[in-house]
Amino acid sequence: QVQLVESGGGLVQAGGSLRLSCAASGPIFNINSMSWYRRAPGKQRELVAGIINGNSTNYADSVKGRFTISRDNAKNTVYLQMNSLKPEDTAVYYCHALIRSLWGFNEHWGRGTQVTVSS
User: Which region, left, alpha or beta, applies to residue 75 given φ > 0 means left and ψ of -120 to 50 means alpha?
Assistant: First the structure.
């Protein structure tokens, strides 16, 4: 069974930093892309950042210049370095990946990690 497990969320003051991690495990042949989404209270889920084939990245306009996504292919892990955090970054952050595994090519989601930014 393929699993995505996030870690690194928490409570931080505005202006602070956090680093999220998401590790994929299981019978994985290849990971095509890994991304971070978030869902704030009362809002729809939105794409925060994504990384494709290990090097092509994209970001939501609201986080450009503050967040950095990176990936360790050897560890099947994606990171999200979040700097200059703002209260509006408060949300549950979810890891998403497109993975080719023993069961074919599927998308997978983590359970989410809470990020709370106080003003």
Answer: alpha
